[in-house]
Amino acid sequence: MPKIRRTKKRPPEGWELIEPTLDELDKKMQDAEMDPHEGKRKCESLWPILKVHHQKSRYLYDLYFRRRAISRELYDYCIAQGYADANLIAKWKKPGYENLCCLKCIQARDTNFGTACICRVPKSKLEEGKIVECISCGCRGCSG
Question: Are residues 89 and 22 in the same domain?
Fold first, then answer.
């Protein structure tokens, strides 16, 4: 859930249209945070949180860049309030990263051999029948 800022500035016009969806995603985030993690690997306990984070960012990205349903002012307000990840959205605008699941998957310093995550390998290059699951976010292939 984003930080509550106590400013006298009102949200921009159009906030009423997207607020219910963002509130619903915030509730999903709270449920993911409170979900018991007994019996799961350490990395698996974070996967639902990263999934909801991705959904919130993708929702605002689609509204502003694809459907042109919200104004720039409202988009900037949502980014400033912490409803979406600006760095992840910036990557989605670049060719080849349109379906990127999280920023951890493209950071080479977090892997053993200094390469990208396994979910960034195209499915055509992998063995048939092999299920690939990213360790950092649980993605099953975001390269296409």
Answer: yes
Q: Residue 113 sits in which domain range?
A: 98-144
* pLDDT at residue 1 greater than cutoff 70: no
| Least confident stretch, 38-52, 73-87, 113-127 | 113-127
Query: Same domain, yes or no, for 29 and 76?
Result: yes
Q: Which residues contact 2 (CB under 8 A, 6 or more apart)?
A: 26, 81, 82, 83
Distance (Å, whole) CA 128 – CA 94: 29
Residue 43: its pLDDT value, please? Answer: 87
Per-chain mean pLDDT for the chain: 90
Round to whole Å and give the CA distance between 56 and 21: 9
How far apart are the C-alpha atoms of 31 and 36, rounded to whole Å?
10
Q: Which of 50, 45, 43 is nearest to 28 (CA)?
A: 50
**Domain-located, residue 5:** no
Q: What is the DSSP letter of 3?
A: P
Report if residue 27 sits inside a domain.
yes
